[in-house]
Design brief:
This protein is of the alpha+beta class. 35% of the residues lie in helices and 27% in strands. The structure holds one RNA strand.
RNA sequence: GCCACCAUAGCUCAGCAGGUAGAGCGGCGGUUUUGUAAACCGUUGGUCGCUGGUUCGAUUCCGGCUGGUGGCUCCA
């Protein structure tokens, strides 16, 4: 009998029967490994476990617990779900069902939309399929045969997908029991390999995400190597729920979005407004330090301005309707740029004046679909931490590098340490400006990133029509990623507004312009900050920093003294003089996530000391008022995170 | 905007196979002078989101609207 040789990850070589599959290899190594295995990596490519191995291949068995296995688990579970749905609702047509990062979904075209109530039934049917432990098999077939097959079972969507698969790619079908699905794979060897899954929600989703198309029923679910993993994930969802900024916003009295005021419009309560103001103050301070000039622009502008800027041409669907002012149309601003440009144009500028950096916390209004609104994260009126940098072509590199450094420093100040950076380049079809200008700008952006040693991904063709951009996303405390900073070139507006500067030789030139926002929007950034910190803001941002808790009425006078001393030192302090037990006052301060509590009883009043308690950590012991104040001041000055 | 679901006291929620509602917390009043996450007693809170319809009668059933949630799309 012929044999083949395969190399394992550790470099060792094994001899197997000529027709051996990856599973046979796993079995040959150990029964335990075989049991745990769900796929194999052959010559760097992840394939099905029952795929035959070629002689000389380098093979690694993928077991359920490996990170690479998760996507397969999710994807295979999606198939099991589709199978279950087809069993329960034979009229359902399957469409697509990919794995996401920790979840999967499958979209179905249903005669009647699925609801939450259908989920337990589907889950039960899935359990059955898993118990049946059906073998999952892959077959590669000629396109026509595949099409004929899906046509025979009325899966129209699959036909549409097949037509879009590039010719050079092989078309494969995965089958388990009575269910077959067009799929690239790989998949688990049999349905019994799934041991922990849960369906999470149903939602509507347009076929191919296009509003013109039919609304499908989407079911989201998740799958994990074991029950423990599933439980951990579900706990994480719970944790995220606890951090939900909408809930904390109410609990901590930060803000409200009021029905009578209007959807997507934020009312900032005193605590939230204070938090916001602290961020604004810091923002103004560092921008002045970084050479920005602060400008202020109006909330509305005449139609002519928006005509010139092109917004009425390409952005109208996001703008609110015109208002008539003495026979003239005015529009509420969706962006600040035209105003900043008008400020630039008010004077003639020499090359010596550049770069000019105009910054404004500019509140803009954009029409967002009602269904897209979400707490502070997506609203209709929001404040951009906007700035426009106007410079000469040879100042570009320097400006971009400064800007990147500034952005990272700024975000780090708020405790964010992990970033994802994206460079988006010129779109294929629609763009303004000369391709050469794009090349210069893109090169400048790229060089800056490389020079600064920043890891980034390139989103080829992902730029706006008016220029390439760099986006920075931040990762929060529970690993979620949020888009904040955006640094965008603009070849459009300088042209439209005929911006210019006078060069050394006296000739006029068009300056380069960069739009940038570091936080993106204040509303959204604060929303992210709330979720990142779970409402436990760093001391420098906490609306109330210290709560003074006299134990009995006789301690009130000394408590007042302490509160006054702290207040005079610039600490935001409140005294809880109610006739309540200390435990009760502490509990309340804890729930309001006030960073420090100062407890004052006979002992403290007698010796002129303080008993200090830190939120969540508990009793820090007794210290002098001076020591405590110094501790606070250090923590504030260093903007230390909780 | 579209699909599904949801809307009961300030908050969290129970209830009603149709006969106009209840708890805990909070608020208020009192007693307690209190030591590191909830003292005790009393009391006040609701056009059951709005609006039509069915019905002798609707918070409950049906329709419309408004708002919210999860998605789709877009993006700060």
């Amino acid at each position: 009998m012929n044999t083949i040789k395969v190399t394992l990850k550790d470099g060792s070589v094994r001899e197997l029967a000529a027709d051996a599959s990856a599973y046979d290899l796993a079995l040959d190594i150990s029964d335990g490994l075989a049991r745990q295995s769900i796929a194999a990596e052959v010559n760097g490519k992840i394939v099905d476990l029952n795929r035959k191995i070629d002689d000389g291949a380098e093979v690694r068995i993928i077991t359920v617990n490996m990170p690479e296995a998760h996507e397969i688990l999710l994807h295979s579970t999606a198939h099991i779900m589709a199978q279950a749905v087809k069993r329960l609702y034979p009229d359902a047509k399957v469409t697509i069902g990919p794995a996401l990062e920790e979840r999967f979904y499958y979209d179905f075209d249903m005669p009647q939309a699925l609801t939450e109530e259908d989920l337990p039934r589907i889950e039960a049917e899935m359990e059955k399929i898993i118990k049946e432990n059906q073998l999952v098999s892959r077959s590669e077939m000629p396109r026509d045969a595949v099409k004929a097959f899906f046509k025979s079972i009325n899966e129209d969507y699959k036909l549409e997908i097949i037509d879009e698969i590039p010719d050079e790619e092989t078309v494969s079908v995965y089958s388990q029991g009575e269910f077959s699905d067009l799929c690239r794979g790989p998949h688990i060897p049999s349905t019994g390999k799934i041991s922990a899954f849960k369906l999470l929600s149903v939602a509507g989703a347009y076929w191919r995400g296009n509003q013109q198309n039919k609304m499908l029923s989407r079911v989201y679910g998740t799958a994990w190597p074991d029950k423990k993993g599933l439980k951990k994930y579900l706990n994480r969802l719970e944790e995220a729920k606890k951090r939900d900024h909408r809930r904390l916003g109410r609990e901590l009295d930060l803000f409200e979005i009021n029905e009578q005021v209007g959807m997507g419009l934020v009312l900032w309560y005193p605590n939230g407004a204070l938090l916001r103001r602290l961020i604004e103050d810091y923002w103004y301070k560092v921008h002045r330090q970084k050479g920005y000039e602060l400008v202020v622009s109006p909330h509305v502008g005449k139609a002519d301005l928006w005509e010139t800027s092109g917004h009425l041409g390409f952005y109208k669907e996001s703008m609110y309707a015109a208002m008539d002012v003495e026979g003239q149309d005015y529009f509420i601003k969706p962006m600040n740029c035209p105003f900043h440009i008008m400020i630039y144009k008010s004077h003639q500028h020499s090359y010596r004046d550049l770069p000019i950096r105009y910054a404004e916390l500019g509140t803009v209004y954009r029409y967002e679909l009602s269904g897209a609104l979400h707490g502070l994260m997506r609203v209709r009126g929001f404040t951009q931490d906007d700035a426009h940098i106007i410079c000469t072509p040879d100042q570009l590199n320097d400006e971009v590098e400064k800007l990147l450094g500034f952005s990272f420093d700024y975000l780090k100040t708020f405790g964010f340490t992990e970033f994802e950076v994206y460079l988006s380049t010129r779109p294929d079809e629609k763009f303004v400006g000369a391709p050469e200008s794009w090349d210069i700008a893109q090169k400048s952006l790229k060089d800056s990133l490389v020079n600064m040693g920043i890891d980034f991904k390139v989103d080829e063709g992902g730029g706006a029509f008016y220029g390439p951009k760099i986006d920075i996303k931040i990762k929060d405390a529970i690993g979620r990623v949020w888009q904040c900073t955006t640094i965008q070139f603009d070849f459009n507006l300088p042209e439209r507004f005929e911006m210019k500067y006078v060069d050394a030789d006296g000739s006029f030139h068009r300056p380069y312009m960069i739009h940038r926002a570091i936080m993106g929007s204040l509303e959204r950034f604060i929303g992210i900050l709330i979720e990142d910190t779970a409402g436990r803001f760093p001391l420098w941002l906490a609306p109330v920093q210290v709560k003074v808790l006299p134990i009995a009425d006789r301690h009130f006078e000394y408590s007042q003294e302490i509160a006054l001393m702290l207040e005079e030192a610039g600490i935001r302090v409140q005294t809880d003089a109610r006739q309540e037990k200390t435990g009760y006052k502490i509990r309340e301060a804890e729930l309001k996530k006030i960073p420090y509590m100062v407890i004052i009883g006979d002992k403290e009043a007698g010796e002129g000391s303080l008993s200090v308690r830190k939120q969540r950590l508990g009793d820090l012991g007794t210290m002098t008022p001076q020591t405590f104040l110094e501790r606070l001041q250090t923590e504030i000055a260093t903007k230390q995170k909780e």
